[in-house]
Amino acid sequence: MEDSRKWVDEVFLHNCVMNEVYPGRSRYALDAFLIYKGEGEWFDLLHHPISRERFAYGGAEMEPVGFSIRETCTGCGVCASVCPQQCITPGTPYQIAWTRRLQCGLCTEHCPADAIARLHA
Ligand code: SF4
Ligand code: SF4
Predict the structure, then answer these.
(1) What is this structure's pTM?
(2) pLDDT tens, position by position, 78-88
(3) Does 118 have pLDDT greater than 70?
(4) What Cα–Cα distance (Å) separates residue 2 from each residue in 28, 67, 99, 102, 120?
(5) Measured distance CA(17)–CA(65) in Å, rounded
(6) Atom of ligand 1 nearest to the CA of 75
(7) Does the Cβ of 103 fall within 6 Å of ligand 2?
(8) DSSP annotation of 79
(9) Which helix (H) or strand (E) holds 9?
(10) Ligand 2 pocket: which of 45, 50, 104, 116 to mutate (most atoms within 8 A of CB)
């Protein structure tokens, strides 16, 4: 209890506006906690092209996400033509640029060779 209050005090020290929301001892209705390990991503849809980046901290491992093009790609170009972010480029096989992915799945829905696989369950 006392340790939790110490950290609540620390939070209020660095976020002074909180004193107006929780005056006096009402601040102790809150619990302070530490997220020591995790993974996530930020995803910016407000700028063009969109961008996203994954991160992990505290020793957590980043799970692969999104889609990947397999060697069975025939190079037909259908995926690139349907991708709303133009993030698929020709190659053998075709390639998907990570940072602009919407992960909408349109490419895999339209691939006639079933060559685009989702990287996570
Ligand atoms: S639609 Fe499928 S087969 Fe065609 S280029 Fe894209 S990944 Fe390759
Ligand atoms: S999932 Fe959507 S945004 Fe990502 S490569 Fe496929 S079509 Fe493009």
Answers:
(1) 0.72
(2) 999 999 989 89
(3) yes
(4) 10, 48, 44, 45, 42
(5) 38
(6) 5
(7) yes
(8) H
(9) helix 2-14
(10) 104
